[in-house]
Amino acid sequence: MNLYQNDDTTIQIDALNMLKLKKNILLKGPTGSGKTKLAETLRHELDRPMHSINCSVDLDAESLLGFKTIEIKGGESVITFVEGPVIQAMKQGHLLYIDEINMAKPETLPILNGVLDFRRTITNPFTGEVITADDNFAVIAAINVGYVGTLPMNEALKNRFVVIDMDYISGETLKNVIRTQTLLEDETLIEQLGKFNKDLITMAEQGQISEEASSIRALLDLCDLTTIMPVERAVKRAIVDKLEDDREQQAIINAMELTF
Ligand SMILES: Nc1ncnc2c1ncn2[C@@H]1O[C@H](COP(=O)(O)OP(=O)(O)OP(=O)(O)O)[C@@H](O)[C@H]1O
């Protein structure tokens, strides 16, 4: 398994120890900065299953807690409750990963307030069952922080987390991630693509291009594509054509012409 890598080893060590202290951790960083990768790495180190929830406007109590359904048992129809990710993780002492927690509707997540504070308890509104989390239950949430403005997170919710600030990796660590997670083996090109990504990050910080263009996810796609097509076309397919804005596209083409 490819694990999370960072020169700053305190990120992973602190996250792991905080989970062991039963703190809920909030990974805060730009898109493609390795938040999901870090969560998977922590799951691997703790050797516990992880349930994931992706927050969107359609996230509701049912998708968190579960829903009632009718089953036919011995010719009779009975109402049963299918447990959702929160209830399963609490009862079984698993990890719960809540991605893009700032994107949920404001009324949905307060359901979890008691789960996320010292009570570690919830009364399931659909069944009346009171559930207290197993000792091994722990929560990792992630929030995408853009350079240009981010949906703020509800204060009461934020209070229930300790925060790990994440940023893009660079230099030798980034080259190692390219070597382990892509098909690219040409060291000269790996070096050049690392520098190109650094330029794109600077441009994103200055607001010239959107962060999806500078994300490590886009870079890894780009590296794979360079093994089957010329680098100029790979940049177009992996990065330029994803953007809507002509000026952003042109800025990336200019940076590419300077680098390759
Ligand atoms: N520090 C890192 N170590 C190892 N892999 C990384 C690292 N940073 C990014 N990656 C790789 O980059 C890609 C994007 O990372 P990941 O999906 O974890 O980002 P994310 O922050 O969760 O993004 P998003 O917020 O957009 O969901 C993955 O393929 C991941 O393996």
UniProtKB/TrEMBL annotation:
GO molecular function, one term: ATP binding
Domain (AAA+ ATPase) ranges: 21-170
Organism: Macrococcus carouselicus
Name of protein: MoxR family ATPase
Family: Belongs to the CbbQ/NirQ/NorQ/GpvN family.
